[in-house]
Amino acid sequence: MTSVIEVENLTKRYGDVIAVDDVGFKIEKDVIYGLLGRNGAGKTTVMSILTAQNFATSGDVRVFGEAPYENARVLPRMCFVRESQKYPDDAKAPHAFRTAKLFFPNWDQELCDRLVADFQLPMNRRIKKLSRGQLSAVGVIIGLASRAEITFFDEPYLGLDAVARQVFYDRLIEDYAAYPRTIILSSHLIDEVSNLIERVLVIDQGRIIMDETTDEVRDRAATIVGDAGAVEAFVAGREVIHRESLGRVVSVTVLGALTDDERRRLAASGLDVVPVSLQQLIVRMTQRAADSRVPNEGALR
Amino acid sequence: MVDEGRALFLQIAESVEDAIIDGSLAEEAQAPSTNELASFHRINPATAAKGVNMLVDKGVLYKRRGIGMFVAPGARHLLLEERRSAFADRYVEPLLAEAAKIGLDADDLRALIRERASAHTTTGGSAL
Amino acid sequence: MTAFTPTASATPRGRIVNVVRMQFVNRMTFVWIPLIILAAVFVFSMVIWLMIPYGGPKYSGGAQALIWYLLAVGIQSLTLTFPFSQAMSVTRREFFFGTYLTAALTAALLAVVTTVGGLIESATGGWGLNGWMFYTDWTWASGPLGSALSVFALAMLTFTAGFWCATIYKRFGGIGLTLVLVGVGALLLVALWIIGRFNAWVAVFGWLASLGVVPLSLVVLAIVVVLAATEFWMLRRLTP
Questions:
Q1: Rounded to 5 degrees, what angle do the CA atoms C223, C108, C219 make?
Q2: What is the ipTM of this complex?
Q3: Would the CB atoms of A91 and C25 count as touching at under 8 Å?
Q4: I need a surface site. Which of B76, B105, C7, C238 has the fewest CB within 10 A?
Q5: In chain A, what is the straight-line distance between the N-terminal and C-terminal CA atoms, in Å?
Q6: Over the stretch A160-188, which tens digit does the pLDDT of each residue have?
Q7: Which is nearest to A33 in space by CA: A56, A63, A3, A57?
């Protein structure tokens, strides 16, 4: 598999605060990635550095094998419209699209027009007067119609209602299927995008805590529910990442896939196995990472 | 439609298998393409492809170069065999476990099954 | 749809031209509004001249409005258009040259309009009302070209001032900008103090006044170049 982006030892410091902490990963060609994490975890910072809009304090970033900074060979092959993107004063949506056409070599005007209709975007209103959802739609349309080889979507659905979000996901899949490219989608609505993404990159407090395929992640954990005694007996020796109880009923989330044999045993003991959704798993793992951090260590160094 | 418990690509494969078993997707008919499956189930095309490839490996589908994926002859029979041998594990075991929980023994179960089965046949039942 | 719709270019020069196109995509900002302002000022001046029963020369200072407008355009080129250009995957270098090229085109447009206005103004003796907006003896001392150059230089200076101050603010914060402006103010004060110390007021200001429109405009343009150079340096590490 070819990597289109390679990141090594990437660190970003703002004074005493470490926003990105010695991060390393590779982005493979034509794969849809989910860059997941809480607000403020470092998702936008990482994407900004990859597109040379922001600068690393230290570390190495290579896009298509080259450093992206001021690199006119590499930058037009990427598209990054950020979550609260600024547009020229008095600009309207058609102005933004006409400009995008000037700079993205793969720009598809037909797709743009179709998306404008899908999102019912008002073309005659100034961008600064658009609603939050309509503003997001502008960014989403630029991102999709640019057909850039590497496209970043930074929390693209803010302000979009459920219907519009589904339109985005549907158009994304449709266009990706017809024109495969590398897509990195940052989101905190993990369950909504879990079926779209092929690989998961979870970033928490500036560190990558997960870098796997969605299938691998789904297999990672299970929740056992039932009588406290039976459950505890089963989970003994396993890594527990969450525990809840209501009376004698206990719900324990453990790491590690369950074999068919184990599932049979559980059923026989009258215990329920509840699947762990991607969102739950990542939330639990993030909480765990936070709890395990020594209080005086962490972000401040 | 898509549940959290099992891998997505398995669920996709199963949905195609279900269609073959109930006859809506005939042998030698063209199977839905990866992109069609991805769009319909709203999932990543790579995942759909994984499911389709699994079916190809299993011998349920085969590829006609340049045209697409087709249901292999004998696929239905193959799938029925597979499902029958898995039936006991997938359905009977949980049935027994639940029955045990609520205090029904094997005889009770037999009576229940006979009762329900006859109700089905009088109201039309399922084709076999 | 139309005969020629410009699309993406792969050459550096092509991309810089596309930055100019980007700035002009909303023609209001760089073309129509300045012209509208000029026209509005002209109309108001005319109305006022018509109302004043004074036969001597009447001067309109209304062209100032344009200066403030260009300052605002310079500021917004950085605060809004720069972040947008980043989203369009434009390099900072391309943005810098493209934006200055755009400013130069607008400055040239204004120079032409005011010079033509001045020619008409002097030919009609102040629009038949002895009212003067475009023409002054001093700026026209070297003829229409001198006047055009002076307008061009002033427009470039105003745009650059806005662009430059906004960049300092973005990179070094409000404190940075304050320090710089205070520093510039201090330098001027020191210069004035030195002139006063040597009682050279007459000499210095006499000399400045004797400088023609053309040399002074060139000095202004030299200042613009210096500011632009520091601008380029600051832009290199600016984040949107």
A1: 20
A2: 0.87
A3: yes
A4: B105
A5: 37
A6: 999 999 999 999 999 999 999 999 999 88
A7: A3
